[in-house]
Design goal:
mainly alpha; single chain; binds iron/sulfur cluster; 35% helix; 3 helices; 0% strand
Length: 81
């Protein structure tokens, strides 16, 4: 397995697009994204990206929300019939 998260190119947290303190972002990157022990596979953002193709910005790598709770908080666009 790669030692870097395979979702690095599609993750707003890794790309620095989230409004979180810089020290938190660095900590997440060291602990999850670039971890030698493939800890990224336990990152909640990684799990959500795998499931639906992207991760909403409110989800942090160590989120305790379940996938179901995260999905229910995403506002899906309404479709007119
Ligand atoms: S925050 Fe999670 S999904 Fe994003 S790059 Fe880091 S380990 Fe991967």
């Amino acid at each position: 397995m790669s030692q870097q998260c395979p979702k690095i190119g599609s993750c707003n947290l890794f790309e620095g697009k989230l409004e979180i303190p810089e020290d938190s972002m660095i900590r997440y990157k060291c602990f999850y994204c670039l971890c030698e022990n493939t800890r990224w596979s336990n990152c909640k953002r990684f799990m959500v990206i795998n499931e639906i193709g992207y991760c909403p910005d409110f989800v942090m790598p160590n989120s305790l929300l379940s996938s179901e709770q995260i999905m229910s908080r995403i506002r899906w666009p309404k479709v007119s019939l």
